[in-house]
Amino acid sequence: MPYERTLDLNSDAFRGEAYRHYAALRQASPVFLSQPDGQLPMWYVTGAREVEEVLLDSERFARDPSRIDPQFAAMLGGEQSIAFLNDHMLNRDGESHRRLRRLVNKAFTLKAVTAMRPRIEQIAESLLDAVGPSGRMDVVSQYAFPLSITVIAELLGVPAQDRDDFRRWSHMIVRQVGHDLSELQRCYNEFAGYMLALIDRRRAYPTDDLVSALAQVEEEGRMLSRSELCSMIALLIIAGHETSASMIGNAVHTLVQHPDALVRLRDEPALMPDAVEEFLRYDSSVERAMVRFVTRDTELAGQHLRRGQFVVAVVGSANRDEVMCANPDRLDITRPACPHMSFGKGTHYCLGASLARQELDIALNTLLRRCPGLRLAVDPSAVRWRYVPNFRGPDALPVCWSVG
Ligand code: HEM
């Protein structure tokens, strides 16, 4: 076996060449136990079949740690303000998960999302109006992030002018490590405090948005507790922009690295829906699903997993498994739809998949139409990446284009 158990799959060295390492892991051990010095053991699942098995079987692989035992859950839980951010559907299983998901499903149907198209196009156009004449921008901070955060903020009814605060809070929460604990705690307190004040305002003066609708459900004592409501909004903000913004960044990065595909897509925008699926498959912004907890001793691809152990399904690796499609390491924007797992599988399948696809479609179409000769403005080796535990995406992506 080429990899030792002490392999750290979160090191920059690993993440910097993740797809190459995952290919080797899939060959050698598609279910791999990693235990770097001083860390808890973690099973990494890299084979497509095994990833699918984990995500579809919430009986054996739970998201809710209290199904192991209350002490285990308490160990992972923590302060009150964390409860106000963590009490959401992605941390639940079974009926408890369905109950929360039903409350927001309607806002994210294909029909509801299609109705948002003109507004998303307007946001993309106005962001490019601002930078167009200069012929250069950082795709992440000047396009992908403001686009995604504005869309989800408007849908929820959260003031978009506070987006820099959301970005700061959200970045800290998804990164977790690398901040001192008091800094992290302050961030949790600020985020939860902001949400609770917003909920109270929307309850007193409802507007036509999702927070007001959900605040009504809570007030009437029908189904939603205060911590569930606060956590739901926090989840939608974080899941609704971190992933989409990074995905736009990944897709533009892929395109500028594949100039033939870029020119073809600019000249044949009808290819965009298939291309969007290919960008999602080729370099997903969600590299790994959220950790699962083993509910009983079990076997997976010949490995023995014990109750209470942690399991990470690596969807980014599954997407590059040859059992999914031919030549998985090759970008092919005309590929007939390949069943990628970038939006997960099973009960926690991404709530915002239609919205994310539409944002990506609009962001790329608008960029290619408005920015002729789009290319990287720096040497490819200078692009900095942001490897937070589950996500991948460029930290910044400077591009330029021809003006006049
Ligand atoms: C390209 C962008 C996106 C990607 C790649 C993505 C990916 C994913 C994945 C893989 C999961 C499942 C996680 C797991 O099983 O551990 C998930 C769940 C989720 N996503 Fe997304 N997502 C994206 C955009 C969005 C957007 C725009 C929203 C909007 C609100 C959103 C909201 C959610 C929610 C609420 C869940 C939890 C669903 C549940 O627990 O039932 N996502 N997403």
From TrEMBL:
Q: Which PROSITE patterns match?
A: CYTOCHROME_P450 (PS00086)
Q: Which domain of life is it from?
A: Bacteria
| Cofactor field | heme
InterPro entries, alphabetically? Answer: Cyt_P450 (IPR001128), Cyt_P450_CS (IPR017972)
Sorted keywords for this record are: Heme, Iron, Metal-binding, Monooxygenase, Oxidoreductase
- Protein family: Belongs to the cytochrome P450 family.
Q: What is this protein called?
A: Cytochrome P450
Give the classification, highest ranks.
Bacteria, Pseudomonadati, Pseudomonadota, Gammaproteobacteria, Pseudomonadales
